[in-house]
Amino acid sequence: MEDLAVPAPLSGGFTYLVAASQTLGLAVILVLGAWMGVYRGGIAWESSELQFNVHPLCMVVGMVFLQGDALLVYRVFRNESKRSTKILHGLLHALALVIALVGLIAVFEYHKKKSFPNMYSLHSWCGIAAFSFYVLQELNEAVFFGGCGKACCSGACGWGCWTLKSLIAVILQWLLGLVFFLCPGVSFSVRSRYKPHHMFFGVFLFILSLATALLGILELLLFKIRDSYSAFVPEGVLANILGLLLVAFGAVLAYILTRDEWQRPPLAEELALSMDFKTLTEGDSPAASH
Amino acid sequence: MEDLAVPAPLSGGFTYLVAASQTLGLAVILVLGAWMGVYRGGIAWESSELQFNVHPLCMVVGMVFLQGDALLVYRVFRNESKRSTKILHGLLHALALVIALVGLIAVFEYHKKKSFPNMYSLHSWCGIAAFSFYVLQELNEAVFFGGCGKACCSGACGWGCWTLKSLIAVILQWLLGLVFFLCPGVSFSVRSRYKPHHMFFGVFLFILSLATALLGILELLLFKIRDSYSAFVPEGVLANILGLLLVAFGAVLAYILTRDEWQRPPLAEELALSMDFKTLTEGDSPAASH
Prior knowledge:
The structure is a homodimer.
Chain A: H1 12-39, H2 54-76, H3 82-114, H4 122-145, H5 167-182, H6 184-224, H7 226-229, H8 234-258, H9 268-282
């Protein structure tokens, strides 16, 4: 049973890297804001020109910064209850989705006002793929992992709990919960087996969003300053630095998320509960299950 | 000692995913070849126009396909000796570096012939960062992991072995080997602690290379067919599909590389050797070391 013991305290590197990731994330937003403010005229929804600038700001805040931070919460708040961490994780993802949706509406409305065609560039293809899969991933998360962490999908906790996710997600969760209730043995094992795939897909979508942001930076530069870009004008250099900051933010975050020793350890009460539930649903004894 | 036991045989999914990754990788090269051949006039070194087309082909074959496959070999050839796998890993990386270098020379020569400026775009900044770090990573690999897997850096295997890496790398390896020989206790623990960082950095560089390839596709399209790109001309659609194939190749490869259960297990003789060596250098008993 030694792998169930509470692991050693986090090394100092973890705290510094989390601080570095947040500094890089804020630097990304500041540099992007400076680019839009100083060189692209600022943002304004009711404008045929400036409405476009809402798009990069919202997409980077939503699909990069908030999505990235949502992935971090399980490791950063490792000593909080699973329920609180789940709520924060869900809230950050929901906020990221809403902000990204505003960014998408901004660019489609701008294209409509200017009679520009939609969805022809590699940036738009990657972006719409990332956004669509992100919506699916969030619905999936609500279905498989929504709830208080007390196996509510199989009805074991009575009424379940409200994780502030969308109404559709909750309905889906309870529909699948009904299936799990009818076949309780499925719930625990399916969720356990599904979790690593869900985590991989989360990191994949975050990286795809980052790559889409890089494509967006280059596309905007080649549309707006194609002739002066090669002369190392300040706008081009600033936007390139923004690209490198995005890469650095992604690298630090991915490093924190992939270090085995910084995984969130199961708390004592979660361990006891999951073992009991496994015994209940799989007819297995806690001692024999290891 | 249960974590030292030989794990269960690979699930069928592994074989299918490796096959899928190779199919996607070959599809990437074919689609890129078709793009260059059909729409960009083919390739020719002694040409002021067609020399450019050597660049995307070499960079994708070297920095994406071969670099990706080099990362896979430890998992695919899991039952071969560590020495053979290391040689294949090193050969693929060395081949990738040489091919990528040809691709870099092609684009710099093309720019010189046409009097185009160098290194101003986000694609070139990300590309040169990826290539430089890749060279450093390979030198580092030769220093820390080069050899037959029998702790040759500390002189335990006599003359060491030739991994077909570059001369500089071998000199560096033996210089550091000398340091390790003087302080043998450092070698085993430093290399064990460094390995996960080396693996993370390898996957990071592969993903950065992929993102650079996406930027390169978009940059070439906006330079060559900017006005017709938005009309969904066949060249634009083909290049966008190439971008999605690159994303799919990266996703499948990253999935295979990050599944814990598909890690290469240490073979019986490696286990015995590493335990003996640890005992020898750290004054630790095999029984107490677990």
